[in-house]
Amino acid sequence: MEQVMPDSGLNHGVMEVLDRGGKVVQRANVDQNILTIGRGYDNDIILDDQYVCLEHVSVHVVEGMLLVNDLDSVNGISQNKYHFKGKQLMLSSNDTFRIGHTTLRYRSASAPLQTTKIDRHIRSSFWSLHNPVPVFFTALLLIGFIVFEAIFSQTEETENVKILADAIPAVMTILSWGGLWALFGKLMIDRFSFVTHLGIFSLANVGFYLCSIILGYVCYAFGFDHVFSTIFAISVTLISIWMLYTHLGYSTKMSFRSMLTTSVVLTLIGASFYILQEKVMESEFNYMPSYDVILKSPDYNFVEGDSLEKFFSDTEDLKKIVSDAMDK
Amino acid sequence: MKKTFLVLLILFSVITNAEEAPRSEKAETLFSEYKDAVIQVRIIDKTSQSKSSIGSGFFVSNDGYIVSNFHVVSEWVFKPERYQIKYLLNNKEEGDLRLVDVDVVHDLALLKADLKSDAYFKLLNRELTQGEYLYSFGNPHDIGLSIVEGTYNGYIEKSLYKKIHYTGSVNPGMSGGPVVDRNGKVSGVNVSGAGNQLSFLVPKEYVLNLIEKGQKENNKKISGEEAEENKFLTSIRDQILANQEGYMQEFLSKPLKTTSMNGYKLPGNLGEFMKCWGGTEKREKMLYEQTYKICRTEDDIYLSMGQQTGVIEYEHDLYKSRDLGKARFFALMQENFSMPKSAAYADEEMVTGYECQTGQVEHTGTKSKLVFCLREYKKFEGVYDAWLTSVVLAGNDEVLQTSLMLSGVSYENAVKFSQLYMEKIQWSK
C-alpha cells in the first residue's frame, strides 16, 4: 500500500495516550520543549489515573529519539517486562511505555501514515444497494421468483390467494434476514442499514434462482445433466461468499482481507454442514434408485443421442461400479 | 416385540382368516392315521432359546427325511450362527433338524431328523381331477395340529411356475404342511394363500425332484457347519440364475409383443403369467391427465424377510398437459421422472445400493432420456436387480414414460432384455 510522509514542521512527533484496547484517546505534540506528564493539572498531558503521580515523568526529543525522565515517581516506568524507577528511558518511534495503569506511545513526525480509505458507505449511485428504488425492485423480483415457484408446484387449479399465502413465509424470511443484519450493523458501527441488507439478500437470492434456471437449461440443452448439481453448488458457494462479504462490509469496520476470510470461512462452514448432511443421507441405505436427470421442453435440447447399442454397451462400467460396491 | 413381529411375518406369509371347513369322516380317518407324520418346524433363536418363527413339515421316509417350505427355514440359511432348526412331534417330543437341500424357486426344503418314523407320507402318483377333495395338515397359529378339508381347482393359469389352486383354509403356521388326497397320498405342499379359502400349493413333482436330489446330496458328506452354509448359498444362487436363464432365454428368443397406448407402440404382455391392469387419472381440477398400464408377474421368489426376487414389472405412463404450460408441465415431468414409482424391496444386508447410468438415446428418429440402474445381491454374486426408465422428448404437451424392473437376473440378461424392451418402443405415433 502506498505510504504518505507527513510534513513534520517544527513538531518532532506526537505523544499518544492509549486505552486498554490500544486505541488513541489523547494526543499531544512533542516539540523542542520539555513536556511533563502526570495527574496534576499543570502538566502538558494530564492523566486521570490514580497510580500516576502529580508530576510523573517529563519527555523531550534528543537526536530524533524520545527521552523519558522519571521524576522520582512512586510507581516508576514500565516498558515491556522491565520496570524502572528514577531512571531515564530512550524511545524510538512507535515504542510504548507505561506509567501507573496508562500506556503511552511515541510516534515521530516522520512515521508513515496509511492512505485515506475510501468510504464504501458513502459512494452512491442509482444501482447502489442503499438506494431504496433498485432494492425495492430486486426484492420484488425475488418475491416474483418465490411466487412462481409456488405456482410451479401446483398441478391442480388453485386459488391465487392460496399461492400467495404459500409465499408469505419466504417473504418473512427475507425481511427478517435484512432486519437481523441491520441490527448487527447498528451494534457494530452504529448504522442501521435495513434497505442495504435487504438489497444484498434479495440480489443474492435472485442470483440463486437465475443460476438454477440458466444452468438447468444450459445443462439440459447440451447434455450435462450429471454435472448440474456440482456447477450449481459452486455457483451457490460463490454467491454466498459475495453475500456475506457485502453484508460484513455494510455492518462492520473489518478490513477487506478479514471480511473475505470471514465470508469464505462462514460459507465453507455452511457448505460443510450441507455436505455432511448429504453424506449421512447417502450412507443411509435407500432401496430406490436415485439419479440426476434434467427434463425440459424438447425445443431446447440440442444433444445428439447415443444409439441403444452404445448406451447398453457402456453399462459394463456400471457393472464394475456395482462390483466394487460389493467388494466394499 | 421383535420376536412377535418375526413370528407374525412368517405366519402371515402363509395367509389369513377363513372359516374352517367342516370335517368329513374322511378327514377324521386321515388325521388319526397320519397325525404322527406331521411335525412342527421351529426356528429357535440361540441366544434367547425361544421360537423365532414356526411352520409345518412332514416325514417322507421312515429314516427321518422331512419336507417343508424354504421360507420356513430361510432365517437359518442366512444366519446359521444365530438360529437352530428343531422339530416338535405330535407326541411333544423335540429334536434337532438338519437342512439337506432346498428348492428356492418352488419354496421347498428337505430336512433330516436323526430318528426313525413309522408314520410317513407317500407321494401321489396319479393326476388329480378338478373338484376332488384334498386335506391339508398343519399347525395353524401354533395352536396344535389340524386338518382342513378343501378342493383341488387345477393349476394357476397366470404363473411362471406350476402352482395348485386349492380352495381350503390354509392358515398361518401351516406352511410346509402336506396336502393329501382321500388315500393320504401327498399331492402338494401348503405354501401361501390370499384369504377366503383361496390357497396355493407346491405340486408334488417338485417335492419328488427335491427328495431325489437331496437324498443323493446327503450321501456326499460335507463336514462342518460353515461348509453347509456356503453350500446352500451357492445352491440358491445357482437355482436363481438357472431359473432366470430359462424364462429370459424364452423372452429373448421370441419377438416381443407390443401394445398400443393412445397411438404409441409399446412393449406388451410377455405372456399369460403376467397380470396387467391400467387406468386414467383425470379429475376436473387437475391441470394434466395421466393414463397408465402396469404389468407384473406375481411369482415372487421368497429369499428372506428382507428380500423377494424373480419379479418382472413394467409400466407405461402417458401424461397430457391441459393448462399447465410448457415450463410447468416439464417441471412436473422432471419431478415424476426423478422419483421411481416402484423398485423391488430389499434390505441393506441383502443387496448393494442401486448405481445408475443416465444418458440420452436416439431411437427410431426420436430422442429420449434413459436411466439404467443395477444392484447386486450381496449373498449371491452375479445376481442383479435391474431398473430402467425412459421418457420421450417429442412433444410439448404430451410425455410418455416407461419403466421396467427385473429382479434376480444375470447382468447379461438384464442388459439384453432392457435393450430389446427399448427397441420395441415406437415413440412417434
Descriptive notes:
The complex is a heterodimer of chains A (328) and B (429). Chain A has 328 residues and is an alpha+beta fold. Chain A has helices at residues 132-152, 160-189, 194-222, 228-249, 256-283, 308-313, 315-327, and strands spanning 3-4, 13-18, 24-30, 35-38, 45-46, 57-62, 65-70, 77-79, 82-84, 88-91, 96-99, 102-108, 113-114. Chain A has a six-stranded antiparallel β-sheet, with no helix packed on it. A five-stranded mixed β-sheet of chain A has the order 5-4-6-7-10, with no helix packed on it. By secondary structure, chain B is α+β, with helices and mostly antiparallel strands. Helix content of chain B is 24%, strand content 40%. Chain B has seven helices and 24 strands. Chain B has helices spanning 2-12, 25-34, 70-78, 204-219, 225-253, 326-338, 411-423; strands at 38-45, 50-59, 65-68, 83-88, 94-103, 108-113, 122-123, 133-138, 146-155, 164-167, 178-180, 185-195, 198-203, 258-261, 264-267, 274-281, 288-297, 301-304, 307-309, 312-321, 355-363, 366-376, 384-393, 398-409. Chain B has a seven-stranded antiparallel β-sheet with strand order 16-17-20-24-23-22-21, with helices on both faces. Chain B has a six-stranded antiparallel β-barrel with strand order 1-2-3-6-5-4, surrounded by four helices. In chain B, strands 8-9-10-13-12-11 form a six-stranded antiparallel barrel. Residues 1-23 of chain B have low confidence and may be disordered. Chains A and B meet through helix 6 and helix 7 of A and helix 6, strand 21, strand 22, strand 23 and helix 7 of B.
